[in-house]
Design goal:
The protein is elongated, with a radius of gyration of 22 Å. By secondary structure, it is of the alpha/beta class. The protein is 36% helix and 18% strand. It contains 12 helices and 13 strands.
Length: 391
């Protein structure tokens, strides 16, 4: 028997990068079937790992620096430049400067966290001559609508007394005007393309504050406070620039960072896989595979709406290749994924454990789960062979 397995996972937040997850799954596959050919295509969705994935795929360069983190303290961050381009193109993942993993668990309050460091990364890329910026949006720890990023680039957000607002999303409820006069003039000469989850809206019942605020530590009262702040923010952007970000697809990405890219930086928002697949050759790998294994930290009813496993499964299904999804947790509505190309799924957890234990043991758990999945596939292959012989 021969078997070619394509391993195309996302990262596991605060635990495994996409590259590490792919290595773990490969180990499990080969323990079950040492003769298998394993193809690895670690996936990026705009969040953690986005920069290194695109830089690795193009032979580009990484640059490290210190920026203002989401709680206002210095953090180590990075950005990169793509290789092989005619236009000098910087790659930035907002999570490197304002990701949830940079917010200590006891300080997770999206009313106060800031995207200021993202603006510092943009400014550094401009300093190094970027003429185009690809900005990955995902895994954010903020809900400030990208106001901090805008501030770092010279845009002033003022209250009714003409005073600068403090950092954080909640302060935007007092936003009276936006002063664009100090905006970095280089932004008018650079193309900004943001890779966003197209389903993430800024306002409404499915707006960023109500959908993602609780995941970032917001209480029910803070969720409503942030929702009002985002409405005020959208109105101020419309007055300042004439751009309606309130209902624009993707404007709610990364705590509303998409709104600032579109409304204040004159950038463009793109469904994230339209950007990612320009550089990652997933479809070519799928064409060579007999089986696809994808993975992510959580699999639930939200997975079909822009998450890596659903995108991988959609493309594999178009090629008629079966897909298994492995996940740290299995959540509400998970069976919806059967309608979106995933043929089977399993949790990597075999027993109840704490989040800390799961994070610590993730490499071993993921490898074992991949091994178990492939052993089940081998049983099916053996049965098929016997039935074919009998026929």
């Amino acid at each position: 028997m021969s078997l070619t397995v394509l391993v195309a996972p996302s990262g596991f937040k605060e635990s495994l990068s996409a590259e590490q997850a792919a290595d773990c799954i490969e180990q499990g596959v080969l323990r079950a079937f040492p003769q298998a050919k394993v193809l690895k295509a670690p996936m990026a969705d705009g969040g953690e790992g986005f920069t290194r994935a695109l830089i690795g795929a193009t032979g580009g360069t990484i640059h490290t620096m210190t920026v203002t983190g989401p709680v206002g303290e210095p953090v180590a961050a990075h950005f990169g430049f793509l290789g092989g381009t005619t236009i000098k193109t910087a790659v930035i993942e907002m999570a490197a400067a304002a990701g949830l993993s940079l917010v200590p668990r006891d300080r997770r309050n999206p009313c106060l966290t800031t995207s200021y460091g993202v603006g510092e990364l943009v400014r550094a890329a401009l300093d190094k001559g970027a003429r185009r910026i690809v900005l990955g949006c995902g895994d954010s720890g903020i809900n400030d609508g990208g106001a901090g990023m805008a501030e770092a680039l010279g845009i002033r957000l003022l209250d009714s007394d003409g005073l600068a607002l403090p950092k954080g999303g909640a302060a935007l409820s007092r936003l009276a005007s936006i002063d664009m006069r100090g905006c970095d003039p280089r932004l008018s000469e650079v193309q900004i393309d943001a890779a966003v989850n197209w389903h993430n809206m800024l306002l409404g019942e499915k707006g960023v504050a109500r959908v993602f605020g609780p995941q970032k530590g917001a209480t029910p009262e803070q969720v409503e406070e942030l929702a009002v702040a985002m409405e005020t923010y959208a109105q101020a952007i419309a007055r300042a620039t004439g751009i309606d970000v309130g209902n624009a697809p993707g404007a709610g990405a990364s705590g509303g960072l998409g709104a600032a890219v579109l409304g204040l930086l004159s950038g463009k928002l793109h469904p994230r896989y339209d950007i990612v697949m320009q550089y990652l050759e997933l479809d070519r790998f799928i064409a060579s595979a007999d089986l696809v294994i994808t993975a992510e930290g959580s699999l639930d009813g939200q997975t079909p709406f822009g998450k890596v496993p659903a995108e991988v499964a959609h493309r594999a299904k178009n090629a008629g290749i079966p897909v298994i999804a492995l996940a740290g947790t299995i959540g509400k509505g998970v069976r919806l994924n059967f309608e979106h190309g995933i043929d089977a799924f399993a949790s990597i957890l075999s027993r109840p454990c704490t989040l800390e234990d799961a994070i610590h043991s993730a490499p071993k758990l993921l490898a074992r789960s991949a091994e178990d999945a492939v052993r089940m596939v081998m049983v099916g292959m053996s049965m098929t062979a016997r039935l074919n012989q009998a026929a």
